[in-house]
Amino acid sequence: MPTKPHTLRRKLLTWLLLPLLALFFIRAGYTYFYANELANRVYDRMLFRLTVSLSQQIIYDSSNQHIELPQTATEILMTDELDVLYFAIRDAQGIIIDGDQRMPFIPTRRNQDGKFFFDDQIDGHKIRVSHFDLTIGHKRYLLQVAETLIKRSLLAREFQTGVLLPQALIIILATIIVWFGIGKSLAPLKRLQKAVSERSHIDLSPLHEKDVSAEVQPLVNSINDLMARLSEVLDAQNRFIADAAHQLRTPLAGLKTQIELALRQNDAAVTAQAMPSILVSADRMTRLVNQLLALARNEPKAERAIQMGVIDLGALASNITMEWVPQALEKDIDLGFEAPKSPVKIQGDAARIKDLIDNLIDNAVRYTDPHGQITVHVSNGDKPQLSVTDNGPGIPPEHRERVFERFYSVLGNTANGSGLGLAIVREIARMHGATTHIDSAADGTGTRISVVF
Questions:
Q1: Which residue in 186, 210, 394, 432 is a FRET match for 446, CA 20 to 30 A apart?
Q2: Phi-psi domain of 259 (left: phi exceeds 0; alpha: psi -120 through 50; beta: other)
């Protein structure tokens, strides 16, 4: 079962919102650690000030060399609305001589680092501990003050909420705006899709969508270009059908008439005499059908079916000329061939080049009088060239360009032709990037038709 394709809206939302969400979570992680660090920084200063203040309240009894912290001082300084405070005074040996016996000792590593704060626990509650060195009566003491982390957590949470909540709201708002913005931007595409789906199969006129974006305009232009090419193909097919119907109607009617006349004859000898005429008519119609098919095969836009390859033009033209020798001999025409000894290479479709040469020779044989001469010449000067020269009646200069049109024949010409041969030649030449032109033979008589590749 084929998977459902992703919509453009979904892709745009994915590419727009996923980076925003990724940045949001990166920002959230940074804010979390920064908020905790900021809360510690603020309350560490307050805790250290409290430690210093307590140290100033310590009383030293010089008679028995004993120190203590008055209860009034601890009641005033150690009172907090949210956190529980602890203190302890240690002598030089680390023994607590006043305060809470549960107070953890300073870790050796932290002591070596010279830091005044460290984290620990009392009765399972996390605490932050500050310590301060004292020298009283020539003796060294250590004052420790600790507090729980309630205020720090509240400050960090408030900071995180104050930073992340607006950002989350911004992302939600951006999602809504992007959703509707994409819908608004895709509306011209919806109209374009509707215009194409509701269009008739015979309507190949260009699409007109004024509101499409610059990124979609190339698609519209490509569709219009495809429409134009399809229109050309359909026009060519319709033209071919019309031409074929027009050209085949008369020969078919004539052939039918000849067959009907032959069938009405009671004399077998008379019927037999009519057979050659019927055969000639059938040959003419066969040739016309073949030329029509060749013309359809070489219509403009047929380049995709062409199969290009390296062709030895001299060898190909020589073989085709040999095939036409019997037809030339029937009219007592001298059909010759000239080509250089070295190969004349071109890039082309061998089947179509054969059609081109066949039509050139057929045209020359058909319009050259009996006992005439025809020469097929291949040369390799600046460009490969094929020419067919005859000493027939020639083509007047004013008609030389028009004979390449379909079904055009020079008035007064008695040869039986369909007017398609040279049209086929020009189409095949055009497909191969070649040019065709007509002039007289070197002596100024006859006709020379050249194809330059």
A1: 432
A2: alpha
